Amino acid sequence: MSDTAAVRALRTMDLIPYILEHPGISINQLSKIFNVAEKEIEKDLQLAFMCGLPGYTPYELIDLTYEEGVVSIIDPQVLNKPRNFSSNERVVIALGLEILKEINLSNPENLKKIDKLREKFLDKKDEDSVIVVEQDLSFPFLNIINQAIFEKRIVIFDYQSVSKDVLSSRNVLPHKLYLQNGNLYLSGYDVQAHSDRIFKADQILSCTIGDLADTDRFHQTQQEEIVELIVNHDNFNFIERNSSIIIDQEKTNGQLHVKIRTSNFDWLKRAILSNAPSIKVISPESLASEVEQMASDLISAYSHQS
To answer: Is residue 79 part of a domain?
Structure first.
């Protein structure tokens, strides 16, 4: 029977301190102690190696070796107690649970699960325990948008675009609310633009709930495709900014091989061109050719102006 992701994650975290306490232990011995096949231990070690060091970037790797069936960690690297949260991590988790509670007020099933986690996490009686003062988030339209998501309805809102200094009215089928880098965002299908868009919540000035959405029509219009990109190491912030549409990523030779799912190809082409040459399209070939032609046209136009 294959492990769940949670079971594997816990086993992987337990492997590191155990190896630190038993340097030079073999993969065969580890498989017996953790009651899994040797191949599973090897996969867990690869996962630990690629996950990166806590407190650093995810591209600074854990310095361990497992050659010829013997496992060694070169340096403890603060990994002796990976299941313990630091005080900063506890604060982030506590605030995250509060935000999840606020954006799930109209979903009793999710709310029950979140409350159970909050009770389990916040009632720890130790020196690092976190006390959270109950308060509402500053975003006043949480309940409206959550109701629309739950009932698959359109929301109509006035949106202040800071970059364009334009106030516009939007009709959007909301997909989800999520927090990134301390900001709350709304991801949804923009009816006027016929594609997915991301809106910063604090730039929504008014919001009302609209009619039931014709989801079949929207899905037919979207025509999502999988796009494969190569992203250079100097542009990893592209990954962070667009994490909501990334479905897979793999690091190779200082680059990331990324798969994204999108229907908004106009935006994607602009993003690739604005980050050139740090991002390269692998597939589909038609998109790669189109981006290459657009880049050639831009260079040609610039040459003529010069």
So the answer is: no
Segments of the chain with pLDDT less than 70: 1-3, 49-69, 72-92, 122-138, 162-164, 179-182, 215-223, 301-306
How do 225-231 and 255-262 pair as beta strands?
Answer: antiparallel
Quote the pLDDT of residue 96. 76
Beta bridge partners of 208: 156
* pTM of the entire predicted model: 0.40
Number of Cβ within 10 Å of residue 215's Cβ equals: 11
**In residues, how long is the chain?**
306
Q: Which domain holds residue 9?
A: 5-73
> DSSP letter string over 125-183?
-STT---------S-TTHHHHHHHHHHTEEEEEEEEETTTTEEEEEEEEEEEEEEETTE
Query: Are residues 227 and 295 part of one domain?
Result: yes
Q: Other CB atoms closer than 10 Å to residue 6's CB: what's the count?
A: 8
103's tokens = 């954006």
**pLDDT at res. 79:** 54
